[in-house]
Automatic annotation (TrEMBL):
Responsible for the transport of dicarboxylates such as succinate, fumarate, and malate from the periplasm across the inner membrane. This transport system plays an important role in the energy supply of rhizobium-legume symbionts. This is C4-dicarboxylate transport protein. GO terms for cellular component: plasma membrane. NCBIfam families: PRK01663.1. The chain crosses the membrane at residues 9-28, 48-66, 78-100, 142-165, 185-208, 220-242, 352-374. Belongs to the dicarboxylate/amino acid:cation symporter (DAACS) (TC 2.A.23) family. Pfam families: SDF. GO terms for molecular function: fumarate transmembrane transporter activity; malate:proton symporter activity; succinate transmembrane transporter activity. It is found in: Cell inner membrane.
């Protein structure tokens, strides 16, 4: 009985699933590789409901908003925040890579690099342009946004729909209520699907360990350690300072989102945790409109983990190939990285493709050099995803506080564990909480 009590939390079950997956992948590599469909299936199940969840929550938030000028102000604040924070992430990655020098001493001959292994990534990177990225925000049809499963087109049509409902006034009230009921339905579906999270984590980790193996990581441990350290510094120092401004403890926020963070670690992607993130941010005291706009948009424009990875990987490759980067070249890398990191929304292996696009634009480091990172990239993907996930949570809290749309008393209650709404399962049966303060 006592054991079942400790096994009940979702994050514990996901950790157990991930550990078992690592063991299976290590001792039975072929079997681990065969477990890939379990991880892929879980991610697909959650991605299936991401688009309708985003659509309904944005539409409801905007439809209930009386001041449309405030909506435009929120959008401008969000864009400025994303640009400042992602630039900071790029700069921190660059500085730490120079201090630790993870690629020093490898002395790899550039002429020995083969382009075959990275041809697919290079081709994808070359096809990504900023204009095309913005054009992709506009779906071919209203339904196409849901069919393709890309976040930004869904956000685009949701904003249009919400604005239309807001302008229609009382005539749209009945339709808004229906959309709210549909939103509740999809959130219940998410709660059902989360029971499969431990199986998904097992499959993903078994495949990753079985495919690449732990031994292949030894030469890259310094790079991995430097990257994970940099992500931790960014989360607890940079994001910590931002969340402190909003009156929220970064440590308590991370603990509050522990279930979702473990899911992101197991899946290697932040998208499966997006529906639960939206729900938890609302429960934290963030306004529904702020949550609906900032968090989903941040998945394309505020991927802090990818930004850190970009500059660290570029410096690592330059050190490994003994290529000196001038100050001007490093500034160019920062500028280009600020665009390539945002242009990879919806692209498979987005972080790796963003790196290829950056190298292709700079031209100083041969593009085939990214082949040196293929074996270790998947193990760094988890840190990229978690950093970006936490970054978007902090972004939402910051914008909500900036706009005066954060209930700080409610946030303190939730983060202190004194609010029954912190339990996602129990929340469905609890009555609406009172507005008491501490």
């Amino acid at each position: 009985m006592a054991i079942s009590k400790y096994l009940k939390p979702l994050y514990v079950q996901v950790i157990i699933g991930a550990v078992l997956g690592i063991l299976v992948g290590h001792f039975f590599p072929d079997l681990g590789i065969d477990m890939k469909p379990l991880g892929d299936g879980f991610i697909k199940l959650l991605k299936m409901v991401v688009a309708p969840v985003i659509f309904t929550i944005i539409v409801i938030g905007i439809a209930r908003m009386s001041d449309m000028k405030a909506l435009g102000r929120v959008g401008l604040t969000t864009v400025l925040y994303f640009e400042i924070v992602t630039t900071a992430a790029l700069f921190i990655g660059l500085v730490v890579a120079h201090i630790i020098e993870p690629g020093a001493g490898m002395n790899i001959d550039p002429s020995s690099l083969k382009a075959d292994a990275v041809a697919g990534f290079a081709k994808t990177a070359e096809s990504q342009h900023l204009v095309d990225f913005f054009l992709k925000i506009i779906p071919d049809t209203f339904v196409a946004a849901f069919v393709n499963g890309e976040i930004l087109p869904v956000v685009f049509i949701a904003v249009l729909t919400g604005c239309a409902l807001a302008r229609a006034g009382r005539a749209s009230e009945q339709l808004t209520v229906v959309i709210e009921q549909v939103s509740d339905l999809f959130f219940k579906m998410v709660s059902f699907l989360m029971y499969l999270a431990p199986i998904g984590a097992f499959g993903a980790m078994a495949f990753t360990t079985g495919k690449f193996g732990a031994a292949s990581l030894i030469p890259y441990l310094k790079l991995m350690a430097a990257f994970y350290l940099t992500c931790a510094i960014f989360i607890f120092v940079v994001l910590g300072a931002i969340s402190r401004y909003a009156g929220v403890s970064i440590w308590r926020l991370v603990v509050y989102l522990k279930d979702e963070i473990v899911i992101v670690l197991g899946a290697g992607s932040a998208e499966p945790a997006l529906p639960r993130l939206l729900q938890k941010l609302e429960r934290l005291g963030c306004d529904k409109t702020i949550v609906g706009l900032v968090a989903p948009t941040g998945y394309a424009f505020n991927i802090d983990g990818v930004c850190i990875y970009l500059t660290m990987a570029v410096v690592f490759l330059s050190q490994a190939l003994n290529i000196e980067l001038s100050l001007t070249q490093q500034i160019v890398i920062l500028l280009i990285g600020s665009f390539t990191s945002k242009g990879m929304s919806g692209v498979p292996g987005g972080g790796f493709v963003a790196l290829a696009a950056t190298l292709a634009s700079v031209g100083t480091i041969p593009l085939p050099a990214i082949g040196l990172l293929i074996g270790v990239d998947r193990f760094m993907g988890e840190a990229r995803a978690v950093t970006s996930f936490i970054g978007n949570a902090v972004a939402t809290v910051f914008v909500a506080q900036w706009e005066g749309k954060l209930d700080r008393a409610q946030a303190r209650l939730v983060l202190a564990g004194k609010d029954a709404g912190t339990d996602m399962a129990a929340a469905e049966s609890n009555e609406t909480l009172s507005s008491r303060t501490i």
